[in-house]
Amino acid sequence: MENVAILGTGMAGWGAAYRLHQEGVASVAYDKNDYYGGHTASFRHASGFVFDEGPHVSFTKHERLQKLFADSVEQEYQVIHARPNNYWRGHWIKHPAICNLSGLPTDLVVNCLKDFIQAHHDQQDHIEPKPIENYAHWLIASYGKSFAETFPMEYGFKYHTTTADNMSTAWLGPRLYHAKLEEVLLGALSPETPDVHYVDYVRYPSYDGFVSYLNYLPKHTQIKLGHQLVRLDPVAQQLHFGNGVSTKYDAVVSSIPLTELIPMIAGAPPDVVAAAKKLACTSCVMINLGIDRADLSQGQWTYFYDRDICFTRLSFPHMC
Asked: CB count, 10 Å around CB of 108?
């Protein structure tokens, strides 16, 4: 295999280039932008602030990846104790909210405790649960109905723009903390609680933004910018770009979203094209503010549940 094309130069593109480089296989990476990084890109404002294309941090627990990222920035990175929090109807709540109910309206706390204890009791006694067919079922089985409907279902609706019963659980992984009964009870009775979260510490480059973790990319592949794919011919094994360039390939690795890639593949089967049209995704509007002060917030990021607040999350500058 002599000519491997990689479509996209974000983290997924680098992963492909890195592995191919390890195997001694040369590759060429194409990006539609005039910079590499994809959604991992960072931009320096004239004022000196560096903004990422998203609130990125690294919290992988895989030592191999930790070392790879650290080496890519020559060990120049920060380790930050993660302290996220939540905002709900005027209340600032330590994260995770299920373990920090103290100070919330009494009737809500009572209902959350009652439902959580029932869910916990059902699990402990191995009572036959209802089939977990979607995210809503999972939330109720894990946290009880009151908490699930007040917090994660509301946040999920704002963030994913669909209801929890329309979502699977395949994406969850460790993202939601599995609270112990003792933790929930303590958090309902006292404002002083231990730090419990699936992310304890995050790592972030000391200089030039999150894209610095891709410093090795130019060493692992040849990069061609300003190449937006418009057609992929799998029979002729040829790529066609919007700038008029065409090139042959022996193999291709793509990080282009399937909703965009499938229509560009010549001769794609109709059922595959139809399936791609059914895929759902959301878009995100980011607003970056440069604020020259260090005491903006106790938390590095905050989740907002109220529907009358249009945004879902704030990430603060001392982290990114």
From this structure: 15
